[in-house]
Amino acid sequence: LNPSGECWQVGRSSSHVKMSGDPDTDVVKYSNCFHDGEKLAQHGIFPKAIQRYTQALDAVTNANGLLAIDEAKHCLTSRAKCYLAMSDHKNAYLDAEKSLEDDPDFVKGIHMKAEALYMKGEFEYALMYFHRGHKMRPELSEFSRGISKSTEAIENSVGSPEDIALEKKGDLTLFHTFPTLPSETSKQQKKKNDARKPQPTTTKASEKSVKALLGELYADRQYIEELLEDPSFVTVNAAEENDSLRDLLSTEKSYLEKRTEFWRQQKPIYAIKNERLRNLGLMTSTLTTTRSGTAAVDTSGELTREDIWRGMEDIEHSFSDGYTEDALDQAKDLRGRVEVSTIPSRLNYLAMLSSLVGTALFDLQDYETALTEFKEVLEHATVGQPDLTTLANTNIGRCQAALGEYAAAVQTWGQLTLTDPKILAWLHHEMGRCYLEMFRESKNADFLTQAVSMAQACHRQGSECGERKWEMAAKILQAEASKEKGDFAKAAELFDTGSHDAGQVGDGTTQFNCAEASKSCKELAADKAAADAAGAAADASTNAGISDGGDGGK
User: Fold this and answer.
1) Report field, pTM of the whole predicted structure over 0.85
2) Whole-angstrom distance between the N-terminal and C-terminal Cα of the chain?
């Protein structure tokens, strides 16, 4: 395991470790700066992460400019990853190269070098290094995905081998003699021939692909296009100001198109629907009969583990590309084939596929059907598969909460035995949300107490695993509980903290919402204070009147 917790290298030679006796080595400073950089990178604060990584490397760089400890190569690849996130492929490539100087087989360095070459546009070299890394560590998905996206990028640039038919015809003299300079006549003839050739047509990316690539920016792109196509906007007030606005919108649209192409390279849609269906056809061709009606092969032995894993990997690609409906169809289709097979561990495979079906249905907001699928996972999972049952119960609780069955969700999640701080932070936050909704329905103060307790547990687990977003979510949950309790001043203070934390993690929407909620709570606190003051004054006046009346009676 490297310092960032990733399993990349099985072993390393002790001859590379040069930390003892080197006066230029400050291992403590290196460790502190490196881990600071890791936390910053996890939260997407890449410029500051690069600064901390640089400070870490400076702490172990000797007078000759050489790194004094072998562990520094992990810092180099981490910094390279940040450079890639900032689209700086040049510095990322330099760091990757440096990490491979003493250890050419350093797997993470090979991966970063391949990614840098890919971003640079050198897809063939990137493919070569992705293959090299995959040969060394075939279990790492980073290399298989790299091979897929590099292959597609090459095919998008020059076409697939099946689509290119080279022909040997015409004058082949130049293949056997030295070329001579073309004459003016031949140049003119070439221009005429080029003019006759059909120009290559560029296929506009489908809206589905663009939506998957742009994500939240897709709505902005649609809005800009609607403005530019609006006749009233285009024709009315054709003044310089309007022209400037149109130029600005055109510039923004061009920028989004460039980002689309950029993300097409970074996250290509290499599992296009037709290609997926073709792959599934290859995978399942042995399970069908031939056109003549005779059975191809005994179906009991044809569906292999490799077929199933390849099919599930294709389903995962559909999920990552945003094709949830395709993923649902593929998962159901593959599950049907597994059901009629006699493959070993068939029930476990059915459990995994039912989990994928349920996940797709949940994403499509069909919570009731998804709940049924996740319950089937529990039926299929065999003894000794705690991961499958834990995942199923986790998802069952999610469905119950989405359906408004908060008490059932809390009961389901309460039976889980989890140890991962990140998952525990999420779980405590979701349970706290359920308790808050239960209080809003019943006004039972015990539920509000439980919500605060869950929020505190979420904050504690978030701090333990260094996840600032869960610390932020816990503060917001506590703020909402305080607001429900009527403690508006404390709620405003917690919302302010949540807004600050949201700004630190780059969540602008949450930052704005928390700021607005804090403003509202401060107004409510001021109104409550004024009402309390008015009530106290009224009580004082009443008591004074009673006292005066009593004296007069005497």
Assistant:
1) no
2) 90
